[in-house]
């Protein structure tokens, strides 16, 4: 009809003007949290000196390139890809069982799933749904009550002290339980481990109560230095062990449950029921094999050098006149530990990022968490890049960091 085209043209013209006007409007400012996230990411990428550079903070391009470069060292890439847990996944399971000295191991997409399955299997075998654990254990703090809500288990807390339970606490505990779960190391208490003698006595105390023992060994790989024992010797103390492939081995994800063959076969059934029978998992399995090949042999070096770094941090803060600073444990049990400082978390985070932006040295790359009025804590990891730091390097970085803290920010 006459006039139709001009009318449509007018509508389109007005829409175009509106879109142009919208395009010209200034963008909404980013929330402060997102601005800090981007600053941290940029500072980390540009830093020439960090104590640990992990795949978690690498770009997709970097992760894919690393996988492509290293995968031929650990598996024949001309083999067929995996389907529902065969192929490279089975190869990974055999490798883990051999490293831990167990009869078998099963791959799981997550540690949460692996431990739920292990603990419900033990509950059925012992006839007790009660699991004794530490108040700071991962299932109690980070899994939204999954053991109770999903697995139908009941947990009882042996202790809340920032250490592993003692044998006497196990013997004196008032409630019966079928399984004792021990997180080795206990991350939220400062990546702490007992001594070997304390651990063996602790396990014996559980056996006296006819309980089975399960190790939450997400970071068990690096415990050999503290214990002075091999991985098979450590794993042999427990009835079952869970290990992670990304927390210390820098993998993409995934976990394994290791133990007696009959338990592992039962766990495979529950893995399927939980939705863990994933169609293909070759990137995760390959990354785990790479971690076992490359990172696992280096972990003892990381642990030993973490002790050097921790001592230098203490000396640095003392020399800078910080009135109350704590490195916990004073001599780290693993290659990870805590640093506590008497400042608000946002002050410490800003100072750490600003130091990295201005000096390319990123001393504290993690988040600072508020632990009380004017008191904050961060976790420190020492890995391959940390081996390049001398004690003097650490002390100099601490002095520079402390000098950037605003006056009057302490509690």
TrEMBL record:
Keyword Nucleotidyltransferase among record annotations: no
Gene3D superfamilies: Aspartate Aminotransferase, domain 1, Type I PLP-dependent aspartate aminotransferase-like (Major domain)
GO MF annotation: an example: L-allo-threonine aldolase activity
TM segment ranges: none
Domain Aromatic amino acid beta-eliminating lyase/threonine aldolase, chain residue ranges per copy: 87-314
InterPro entries, sorted: ArAA_b-elim_lyase/Thr_aldolase, PyrdxlP-dep_Trfase, PyrdxlP-dep_Trfase_major, PyrdxlP-dep_Trfase_small
Gene Ontology biological-process annotations: glycine biosynthetic process; L-threonine catabolic process
Keywords in alphabetical order: Pyridoxal phosphate
Gene Ontology cellular-component annotations: cytosol
Biased composition (Basic residues): 1-12
Region (Disordered): 1-35
Co-factor(s): pyridoxal 5'-phosphate
Keyword Ribonucleoprotein: no
Family note: Belongs to the threonine aldolase family.
Name of this chain's protein: Threonine aldolase
Source organism per UniProt: Streptomyces fuscichromogenes
């Amino acid at each position: 009809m006459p006039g139709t085209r001009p009318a449509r043209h007018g509508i389109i013209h007005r829409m175009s003007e509106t879109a142009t006007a919208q395009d010209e409007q200034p963008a909404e400012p980013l929330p402060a949290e997102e601005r800090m996230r981007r600053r941290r990411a940029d500072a980390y990428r540009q830093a020439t000196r960090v104590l640990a550079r992990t795949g978690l903070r690498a770009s997709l391009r970097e992760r894919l390139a690393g996988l492509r470069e290293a995968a031929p060292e650990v598996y024949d890439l001309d083999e067929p890809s995996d389907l529902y847990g065969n192929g490279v996944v089975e190869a990974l399971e055999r490798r883990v069982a051999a490293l831990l000295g167990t009869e078998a191991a099963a791959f799981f997409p997550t540690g949460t799933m692996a431990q739920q399955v292990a603990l419900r299997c033990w509950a059925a075998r012992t006839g007790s749904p009660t699991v004794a654990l530490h108040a700071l254990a991962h299932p109690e703090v980070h899994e939204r009550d999954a053991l109770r809500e999903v697995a139908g288990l009941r947990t009882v807390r042996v202790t809340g002290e920032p250490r592993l339970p003692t044998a006497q606490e196990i013997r004196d505990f008032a409630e019966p339980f079928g399984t004792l779960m021990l997180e080795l190391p206990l991350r939220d208490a400062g990546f702490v481990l007992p001594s070997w003698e304390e651990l063996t006595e602790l396990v014996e105390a559980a056996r006296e109560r006819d309980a089975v023992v399960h190790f939450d060994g997400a970071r068990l790989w690096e415990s050999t230095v503290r214990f002075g024992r091999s991985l098979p010797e450590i794993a042999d103390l427990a009835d079952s062990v869970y290990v992670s492939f990304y927390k210390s081995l820098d993998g993409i994800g995934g976990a394994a449950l290791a133990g007696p063959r009959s338990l592992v076969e039962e766990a495979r059934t529950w893995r399927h029921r939980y939705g863990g029978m994933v169609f293909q998992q070759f990137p995760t399995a390959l990354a785990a094999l790479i971690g076992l090949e490359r990172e696992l042999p280096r972990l003892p070096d990381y642990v030993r050098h973490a002790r050097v770094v921790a001592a230098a941090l203490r000396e640095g803060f003392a020399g800078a006149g910080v009135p109350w600073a704590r490195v916990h444990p004073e001599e780290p049990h693993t290659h990870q530990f805590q640093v506590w400082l008497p400042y608000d978390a946002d002050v410490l985070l800003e100072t750490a990022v600003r130091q990295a932006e201005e000096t390319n040295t990123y001393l504290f790359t993690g988040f600072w968490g508020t632990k009380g009025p004017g008191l904050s804590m961060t976790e420190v990891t020492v890995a391959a890049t940390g081996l390049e730091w001398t004690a003097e390097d650490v002390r100099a970085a601490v002095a520079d960091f402390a000098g950037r803290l605003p006056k009057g920010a302490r509690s």
